[in-house]
Design goal:
CATH architecture of the largest domain: 2-Layer Sandwich
Strand order of the largest sheet: 1-2-7-3-4-5-6
Strand content: 25-35%
Shape: flat
CATH class of the largest domain: Alpha Beta
CATH superfamily of the largest domain: eRF1 domain 2
Largest sheet: 7 strands, antiparallel
Number of helices: 11
Helix content: 25-40%
Radius of gyration: 24 Å
Length: 361
């Protein structure tokens, strides 16, 4: 993301979005009641019965709703028109901005919270981790998914009957090779389509290493360079992917991959909660107090809480965020599009892991 003009003291920020991560940050920052201004396209009908035509124009709208469409790389902002070319639009009409990378947008707020601005600034030099392919695999079973910073999207499941080694060795190897070829074909298709350059292969036993050898041995000279890493998991089922997210093994490989860190920290919160050691808290009251006392090591917040809170609640959350960061704690904003965020949603949308037990009495 590029900041083209920072006039947040007077309510205005002018930015250019460069990546999917930038769209995600704006999704969590732009809220109902804000105003945005930028170039857009709108269907214009000049005469009754005319099918109309799409015309580019600059519009200012009051935001009513914000939607993040990750797999179409698009941020949709719905609202009512405040300003625009009078020949083509009227005030109060509805319009939707479809924002994509490389677009520029002006954002107007009555009040900019410090944490919102800091999140944008921290993202300025960040490289977009974007997406990786994950394969959970065992002998005759493979599940393939695309993992982004925000969600896990299953692509397909492949099953193949592999005869045991007591049968003819040639028939066994032919079935294994055919299975590996099917998995490789799906991976290549998605590498080409999504521009992915990292594959994590997980599963039990030795077949994951065998597949890695097959994949590397059957590379074409024109294939895009792809890094493949192997991790241990209990099965070739989809659940194995959540295993490597929660146990931290994927985060160890991709420390900049947000969903892996989120799953790991949520698992840590649940672990402390089960131990009943007094360091896991949830709900706004206890979490807020823990932050105020300087005890908060990790503060976990659902994205929906940031987007839907009333101003009074938003101020309380902002204060908890600032207190946590000022006392060297970490803030984690979890997407409800992934299991960790959905799980946090059931704990009141805000929780924390503290450095030590706090006596709330």
């Amino acid at each position: 993301m590029q900041i083209l003009k920072d006039n947040t003291r007077n309510g205005e920020l002018f930015v250019q979005m460069d990546s999917l991560d930038d769209l995600w940050i704006l999704y969590n920052i732009i809220r109902p009641g804000d105003q945005i201004k930028g170039r857009t396209v709108r269907r214009v009908v000049l005469r009754e019965g005319d099918p109309g035509h799409r015309k580019p124009m600059t519009l200012l709208i009051t935001v009513e709703k914000v939607e993040f469409h990750e797999f179409s790389n698009r941020l949709r902002i719905l609202g009512t028109i405040l300003e625009g070319p009078e020949d083509y639009v009227s005030h109060g009409q509805h319009h939707t901005f479809n924002l994509e990378a490389r677009q520029k947008i002006r954002i107007f707020k009555e009040r900019w919270f410090r944490n919102d601005i800091e999140r944008i600034r921290r993202n300025l030099q960040k490289k977009d981790a974007n997406q990786i392919l994950v394969v959970a695999i065992e002998n005759g079973l493979a599940n393939i998914a695309i993992l982004s910073n925000y969600s896990l999207n299953p692509i397909t499941e492949i099953r193949k009957n592999i005869p045991g080694k007591r049968y003819k060795k040639q028939a066994h190897q032919a079935a294994v090779d055919d299975f590996s070829r099917q998995v490789t074909t799906v991976l290549r298709e998605n590498i080409e389509k999504s521009g992915i350059n990292f594959i994590a292969v997980c599963g039990p036993g030795f077949y994951k290493e065998q597949f890695q050898e097959y994949f590397n041995a059957h590379k074409d000279s024109n294939d895009k360079p792809v890094e493949m890493r192997v991790l241990n998991a209990s099965s070739g089922e989809l659940s194995a992917m959540y295993e490597i997210l929660r146990d931290g093994s994927l985060a160890a490989l991709k420390s900049d991959f947000k969903i892996a860190v989120d799953e790991m920290i949520m698992a840590k919160f649940v672990e402390h909660l089960a131990k009943d050691d007094g360091t896991a808290v949830y709900g706004i009251e206890e979490t807020e107090l823990g932050a105020q006392m300087g005890a908060m090591e990790h503060l976990l917040i659902c994205d929906v809480l940031l987007r839907t809170s009333e101003l009074s609640m938003r101020k309380r959350i902002e204060e908890a965020l600032n207190k946590t960061e000022n006392t060297r704690g970490e803030v984690h904003i979890l997407s409800t599009l992934n299991p960790a965020g959905d799980q946090l949603n059931s704990y009141g949308q805000i929780a924390g892991i503290m450095r030590y037990r706090v006596d709330y009495s």
